[in-house]
Prior knowledge:
The complex is a heterodimer of chains A (about 425) and B (about 325). Chain A is α/β, with parallel strands linked by helices and about 425 residues long.
Amino acid sequence: MSGRRIAFKNARLIDPESGLDVKGGLLVENGKIVDLGPRLFNNAEANDPEVVDCRGLVLCPGLIDLRVFTGEPGSEHRETLESASHAAAAGGVTTIVVMPNTDPVIDEPSLVDFIRRRAVATAKVHVLPMAALTKSLNGEVMTEIGLLQEAGAIAFTDGDRTVSNARVFRRALAYASNFGALVAGHAEDPDLSEGASMSEGEYATRLGIAGSPAAAETIIVERDLRLVELTGARYHFGQISTRASLEALRAAKARGLGVTCAVSAHHLALNELDVGAYRTFTKVKPPLRSEDDRLAMAEGVASGTIDAIVSSHDPQAADTKRQPFAQAAFGAVGLETLLPATLALHHNHGLALGTVLKAMTAAPRAILGLESGRLAKGAPADLTLIDPDEPFVVELSELHSRARNTPFDGRRMQGRAQRTYVAGECVFDRAKEAKRK
Amino acid sequence: MTTASADTPILKSSHLLGIEDLSVDEIEGLLLLANHYVEINRAAEKKTALLRGRTLINLFFEASTRTQSSFELAGKRLGADVLNMSVRTSSVSKGETLIDTASTLNAMRPDILVVRHPDSGAAELLSQKLDCSVVNAGDGSHEHPTQALLDALTIRRRGRAFEGLVVAICGDVAHSRVARSNIHLLAKLGARVRLIAPRTLLPPDADRFGVEIYGDMREGLKGADIVMMLRLQLERMAGAFVPSTREYFRFWGLDRQKLGLAKPGALVMHPGPMNRGVEIDSDVADDIEVSLIREQVEMGVAIRMAVLDALSRGFARERRNAP
């Protein structure tokens, strides 16, 4: 595909990093953006063999999702890197960061290598593996952070597990800082949240379901902030969900601590009442919180205290979800609903489109130090064409993910990806897909 | 080679507990005296009568072949009666406290007690409770003064001047008494000390000791004249401080390639015993062109003789001052 050119015209170009939001065109060559701007292809028809008329839709950097669980290796019936990449492409996501919570756990350099090779061989989007922070995710012994980084681990995390021993965690943070390695933590005190299936409060009490208090998150957030201060580590909170966490983060950032955090699209769109009549697809980690917490998350994105929005995509097989609520597995798929669920911030909360998209492009790019996530000359042509206004209903049968455990089944949403490009290759085209059906 | 006359006092204190309290003159005096003992140790007849009639007790609460035999030999070559006590044979294992042990030993009227103990400050405590001279042969993570002195002697005898000498101390600095003693000594003699270690093996506020800190060994070795490797204790390798020996060796182990970043002609030291393939590659450790490791052992005996000699000069003063 050397010399291959694609001309995008009549686009609304949004680059959250530079603040660009103009009508114009963009030229791709050899998988990279070579030119863009308001005057490009404006007056004359582009002469290029491949011209994409964007018809005024939003052309922005491909989304980067910092938190994706798959089942490969070990639980391929739930999701493979390949099936996750299809879901990602359909959701406008061009880079997925996969968690090490697989079987075996990604805690060996050879396993990081396996993920990378499998991704290159099977996935349609970029796959960046995070490696485990502690061996077997046991929270006791740190992994070979240096060797894992050399093997291609983008960051280090125990995924949805908290390292409860503060001494172990302190040492792991200090050790990671030798390599400038990013550590991503999960903030949920495992003792306080033990046995809990949803957020503690009135509604959990009505349902008779054991709840995890918001404090289970706050305690770890505040602990981790102190340990980051002590060690100087690069640290990212994989997901926060409460107003108290947001306030702790705001205060820490105000005193100059270089930490970042993310919220899941589920926690922006749903609250604990969505559990309804024991709907297990709403059982996620951390649990859906109160409406006040949900509003705090939206405020956090608006103010920039929350850096990134993630899908926290966690595919689960039907048998583990068709269970009494307390026994059902945690997790919800989210790659395909990440963008629509997040666009509600634009439609309902008045956030600028650029602000919403920044949390899935420029922010994760900055957190991971990636080349992609921006519209700029020389940047990889990872692009998403979005119709921000198109109304649709989420249908389980239309999901690309191998697992269908979405809490948004049947929900009316507004705005989604129409086309997705990875390194200049079209990996998803909604129009073509509709024709096929 | 000149040496001070036999009566000139060298040490102000009647103990040698650490380098931190020593003056440059005291250090220079010991190094000069040790030079003299290097020559004696290389002669066929090594025995002198300096400490004849004196009793030296080696009290070792931690196993140490090298330091203990070095002190034993030093004492015997100076004519002292040497008694070795190790923790396995002492009453400490039966529950006796350190102070009890001290008063028991005191009653045996030794002249010099050489002590190694896993707790920092143990030598200091004994020096307060005993009437004899106490030599610290390593206390916890605090000091190991004779090791630093023998390292200095080794460097000096290779013709290297300390002023401006760049010495990189690499490895488990946090738990190392050797590192602490060397930091003090090298700084007093005007060398530039660098510490190279993963963050988990660097003591807090290490930068307050007038040293340069490097997490990246390759950076830290650039321009170094001396590379001083530290031993990584086995129990610290299994994930608590570093994840594995293979990762440690990859990033903080001294091999030919990393040594190539140091100044041409840079020399390698190690207090022993070495973990080959963990902190040092055999290829480097066994290269007599760059490795001073065997010389360090030789200088160890000479330094310890010098220390015993210097302390015994205090005995003479006491005698003269006695009524």
